[in-house]
TrEMBL record:
<dbReference type="GO" id="GO:0016887">
    <property type="term" value="F:ATP hydrolysis activity"/>
</dbReference>
<comment type="function">
    <text>Part of the ABC transporter FtsEX involved in cellular division. Important for assembly or stability of the septal ring.</text>
</comment>
<dbReference type="InterPro" id="IPR003593">
    <property type="entry name" value="AAA+_ATPase"/>
</dbReference>
<dbReference type="InterPro" id="IPR015854">
    <property type="entry name" value="ABC_transpr_LolD-like"/>
</dbReference>
<protein>
    <recommendedName>
        <fullName>Cell division ATP-binding protein FtsE</fullName>
    </recommendedName>
</protein>
<dbReference type="GO" id="GO:0022857">
    <property type="term" value="F:transmembrane transporter activity"/>
</dbReference>
<dbReference type="GO" id="GO:0005524">
    <property type="term" value="F:ATP binding"/>
</dbReference>
<keyword id="KW-0067">ATP-binding</keyword>
<dbReference type="Pfam" id="PF00005">
    <property type="entry name" value="ABC_tran"/>
</dbReference>
<dbReference type="InterPro" id="IPR027417">
    <property type="entry name" value="P-loop_NTPase"/>
</dbReference>
<keyword id="KW-0547">Nucleotide-binding</keyword>
<dbReference type="GO" id="GO:0005886">
    <property type="term" value="C:plasma membrane"/>
</dbReference>
<feature type="domain" description="ABC transporter">
    <location>
        <begin position="6"/>
        <end position="227"/>
    </location>
</feature>
<dbReference type="InterPro" id="IPR003439">
    <property type="entry name" value="ABC_transporter-like_ATP-bd"/>
</dbReference>
<comment type="similarity">
    <text>Belongs to the ABC transporter superfamily.</text>
</comment>
<dbReference type="InterPro" id="IPR017871">
    <property type="entry name" value="ABC_transporter-like_CS"/>
</dbReference>
Amino acid sequence: MSQTILSLKDVTIFQEGNAILSNVNLDVKHGDFLYIIGKTGSGKSSLMKTLYADLDLNNGEGTIVDYDLRTLKEKDIPYLRRKLGIVFQDFKLLPDRNVHDNLEFVLRATGWSEKEEIQVKIEEVLDKVGMKSMTGKMPHQLSGGEQQRVAIARALLNDPELILADEPTGNLDPQTSVEVMEVLKSINQNGKTIIMATHDYALIMKYPAKTLKCENGQLFEVVQRTV
């Protein structure tokens, strides 16, 4: 039986003191691919931020990669995030460092020290996203899609149990979005669990998977129509 990697029970999601999602119940298993959809302001990003402990969980029960979100101490948040790969809409690459040095910075910040091991790991994750030949490029020399591929590689550095992708194609054109989605699907097919918040319905139709919708303060599963 698949192991649960995320469990939320009767959770209320708050943003700036206001409840924006209530009675959230969610169970995600190892290897799942899950979409979270909804209009801007419906709670998608607040839910994602709660999962990586940028927002506190004050109501209900929640566990993620064996961490209890209700009792999580601030000193443990960095350790939680090492077990998560987080991909943002705006890439968040360091503009003054090339691709290699962006990834090396993350590894050294999370305790890696052996130069050879760092090099092997960087090559490994860049190979997975098709960016192995771009190690010397600066972020401004890359297209949006290439920057997002590097961001996905960065999310893979510490072999996370779960990848949280918050609107990863939000700043990309349709063709580039498809290319990034192919990378994410390949990573999922190799066993990684992915939760992706998106408003890109064309991608959901092209790459169907379990889909949850934030609407009117609730989170519920959407049954996709097949043509």
